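Reviewers of the previous submission asked for a worked example of the structure-prediction workflow described in the proposal, so we include one complete record here. The input consisted solely of the amino acid sequence. No template or homolog information was supplied to the procedure at any stage.
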Amino acid sequence: MRFCKKNIDLMDSVRTGALAAHAECQFQFHKRRWNCTLIDPMTHEVIPDKGQFMYQGCSDNVKFGIGVSKEFVDSAQRRVITTRDDNGTSLLAPSQLSADGMHMINLHNNQAGRQVLEKSLRRECKCHGMSGSCEMKTCWDSLPNFRHIGMAIKDKFDGAAEVKVVKDEGIEKPRIVMKNSQFKRHTNADLKSASGLQRLLNPPESGLLTLQRLLNP
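From that input alone, the workflow returned the following structure tokens.
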């Protein structure tokens, strides 16, 4: 709420980005039984639109878009506090995924999504000169369309590293480790999938309808 009040001028872009992301997610997962929880779409939308050609070398302000996305999307995760008793002990059952661990995974995946966008930048150039010559060339970095980014994130989703949350005795902050230690450890660019994540399902009366379901590919 604080972010929204402070950045009223960006709210239309945030809304547009959220709608575009939901539509893209539905397209990418239209053959799967998953209800498309919100992905990180704001970066693409809040980047200023400078037109089809940027003659003076004005590139899409990716850093600005990423900064806004990080502040808006990550803020909710950073406020997560695990419920504890008077002694500071977590009240969650050991078999449950802790709120602390889940928000750590979400923050990691948010950043991995932003890296996809950064690596998707395309270098474009336009020549200037008489009769089509290229006496002077102006180049800039431009973003691909939303479908390209959606496909890249979908590929990462399919190859997400399965992890689990480990709560060491006497240490407040949980650790995220690979579920199977024989697998290669995930990188900062990989998406993480939480092992043992509780699914919230509303059984449909008919048809393939799944509601209130959390990610666990």
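The chain has a mean pLDDT of 70. We consider this example representative of the routine output the project will generate in years two and three.
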